[in-house]
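Slide 14.
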Amino acid sequence: MPSVFETAPATSATPIAFATKATWHAICAALPEQARQFALANGFTAKPGACLTLPSADGKIAQVIFGLEDETSKSRDLFRPGQLPGLLPAGVYRFANAPHDTRLAVLAFALGAYRFGRYRKTDAADVRLLPPDGIDMADISRVAEGAYLARDLINTPANDMGPEELAFAARDLAARFGANFNCIVGDDLTRQNFPLIHAVGMASSRAPRLIDLTWGDPTHPKVTLVGKGVCFDAGGLDLKPSSGMLIMKKDMAGPPTCWRWRRW
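Slide 15: predicted structure.
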């Protein structure tokens, strides 16, 4: 995962000020005269998701204003700052004030910088964020990296992401983090009492499989996550109408089928 965070001190990082309709008047009044007139001329009102780059006297970006929902709004989008990487020109930025939830805003910024570049070079600008103080960046990076991996698997088309390729990805992940990996393939599914997985995938030329990862201290409470892991067209049977087939490409992105928590 390419880092979207600036790790070296960046004294010249461009500030991003978060504004709401309730706070915009005070923020606007505190701007230098030229910047204030520029904002007013552009009709900026701190509408949620609106982004305004204020120029400096030398033609560079002096500051960015980004609109958020009011604190009292019942529909605040805590991940709205994730729009910023797609709106800003290349450069290093920092939060000039606190958004609704700083940790989620930083995570959203990382997630918003994701681009799928397996088959062609992406044209995303090199936008980086100087992390705010007090944020656990190791935790943020872990979550973002996991989301990047999931998105890469989902976005890879079915001809390059079948059951076998998905198993390879799981095996590599297990090796990286010291997890136990097991995979039951093809007719072994029926012999080990997984007949439904075998029945759904048996019509495909690519053998179905059950992928099992086990990680952690066996003395701790056990959490089991069960997901479909659907690879489009892996079953080989078209049981959906054409409207349903249009969204099947993203079926791997669905939520886990089952979530179980047990104590031993």
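Speaker note: The radius of gyration is 24 Å.
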